[in-house]
Specification:
binds iron/sulfur cluster, binds zinc ion, TIM Barrel, alpha/beta, 38% helix, 7-stranded mixed sheet, 8-stranded parallel sheet, 467 residues
């Protein structure tokens, strides 16, 4: 299932065969299409399309090309139109320094006015930029800083990731700019340019991962290879997804699911999927048995949406051992079964052992992803109990500096840091394959963490992407 997050279906190119175009999109699995407007007329057209076709959602707003024409009364009308139930964002709005069809100060004024409108209406924004990313980021950042409630999420306590409040579409910026936007609660969206030889989009993507992206066609423009120069249409979003899947060496379903989830989350398009007890990544089956944790890492989305690669992991209640076993099905279909999810599995240690025992009887490898605090949580040495049940542990080191560790996890450094290190050493002594992980964050010294892992603990080291 794909979502085309940006298609101008009102364009005259679709005047003759829109129904046919929508049928083709549905036939390749395009579930929803978001239609950004460029001025007052196209805003109304987008709404009419959204009223007529259930799979279509509308945005309203003034494109920077049209900024000179965006009179105050027309912007007031845009704001009224934004109250329509199928309007999901203000867009597309932004700055275009490549064409400069409107004077830049005028573009700034109209962009700012519409960001303010989105804040008043509590809607996300769809941002168009061309040769203007730094200014665009600055304007959005300033507006959001002055209106923190725009980005606040009900569960967004303690500086956890903010709710997404927009997308930079047709993104041509650097990996650094993309990461800045991600931290700021924005997504970036990629169209068919990822299929072009002469585009840096692929190298940016490789540096940022695909967790915070949307996909789009920007129809009727930017048709992907091998259709370049032709009219583009929403069915081709599948080609974009396939190319991104190829870049990451993952099944296209992973790209489709992640980007569809992100798009629905951003635009609040129902329905969101039911929480999962198990989920697959590559050929591993992950088990989500709890969302409880003894720590409270600032970078963890456990108390937010609790989503991994488009999978909803926000359990409403903890599954029983029987329910987990039933959800696993035949474990021999997978390379390994991994206790993971958002939450600390050793909090449910008796259940972990029961499930792991059942998996091991079927001859399949078991990995435990943990914060390494199991001995404190269970008030006993659990390492001897791992033997024969857990083949591998992956422990969050987070930082080799105990103070930074404590700050990141929002727990006291002692006894937790020392307990984590002792747990890792004990696992190694017992012959359990042990990996220490850190999340790639600019404030963490990965080189030091790697040295500490190899020289002090004697384990494998792995840095995993945050974004
Ligand atoms: S230890 Fe893991 S589950 Fe717990 S808060 Fe930190 S990242 Fe989230
Ligand atoms: Zn557009």
């Amino acid at each position: 299932m794909f979502i085309d997050s940006h298609a101008h279906l009102f364009a005259s190119e679709f005047a003759d065969d829109l129904e046919e175009v929508l049928r083709r999109a549905a036939s390749v699995g395009v579930d929803s299409i978001v239609v950004p407007a460029t001025d007052i007329d196209t805003s109304k057209q987008a709404i009419r399309l959204a009223e007529k076709y259930p799979s279509v959602y509308a945005c309203v707003g003034y494109h920077p090309h049209e900024a000179s024409k965006a009179e105050a009364t027309l912007l007031e009308e845009i704001e009224r139109l934004s109250e329509h139930p199928k309007v999901v964002a203000i867009g597309e709005i932004g700055l275009d320094y490549f064409y400069d069809f409107a004077p830049r100060n005028r573009q700034h004024d109209i962009f700012k006015a519409q960001v303010e409108m989105a804040i008043r209406r509590n809607l996300p924004i769809v941002v168009h930029t061309r040769d203007s990313i730094p200014d665009s980021i600055r304007i959005v950042r300033e507006a959001a800083a002055a209106n923190p409630q725009w980005r606040e999420h009900l569960r967004n306590a303690k500086g956890h990731l903010p709710a997404p409040r927009g997308v930079f579409h047709c993104f041509a910026g650097s990996a650094e700019e993309a990461k800045e936007l991600f931290r700021f609660g924005f997504y970036v969206s990629y169209p068919g340019i990822v299929t072009f030889k002469k585009s840096n989009a692929v190298s940016t993507l490789q540096q940022t991962g695909f967790d915070h992206i949307l996909i789009e066609t920007d129809s009727p423009y930017v048709a992907p290879v091998p259709l370049r120069g032709k009219r583009n249409e929403p069915a081709n979003v599948k080609i974009v997804a396939e190319r991104i899947a190829e870049v990451f060496g993952v099944p296209v379903e992973d790209i489709a699911r992640t980007t569809a989830f992100n798009t629905k989350r951003l635009f609040q398009i129902p329905p969101s999927d039911a929480p999962r007890i198990t989920y697959t990544l590559r050929n591993s089956l992950y088990l989500n048995i709890t969302t409880r944790c003894n720590a409270d890492c600032w970078f963890c989305d456990r108390k937010g949406d609790a989503v991994v690669k488009g999978y909803n992991l926000a359990l409403e209640r903890e599954p029983t051992v029987e329910e987990v076993i039933q959800a696993i099905g035949d474990p021999r279909r997978y390379d390994e079964i991994v206790f993971c999810g958002y939450g600390e599995p050793t909090i449910r240690w008796e259940e972990v052992k029961a499930i792991a025992g059942w998996v091991k009887q079927r001859g399949v490898r078991v990995r435990l992803n943990t914060d390494g605090h199991g001995n404190i949580i269970q008030k006993k040495n659990i390492v001897p109990e791992l033997l024969g049940l857990i083949d591998e542990v992956s422990i969050s080191l987070n930082s080799s500096d105990p103070n930074q560790y404590a700050t990141m996890m929002n727990i006291p450094s002692e006894p937790y840091f020392g307990a984590m290190v002792e747990f890792a050493k004990a696992c190694i002594q017992s012959g359990v394959a042990t990996t220490m992980t850190v999340v790639n964050l600019p404030e963490v010294d990965n080189e030091k963490a790697k040295q500490f892992t190899e020289q002090v603990i004697g384990a494998q080291f792995r840095a995993r992407p945050y974004f």
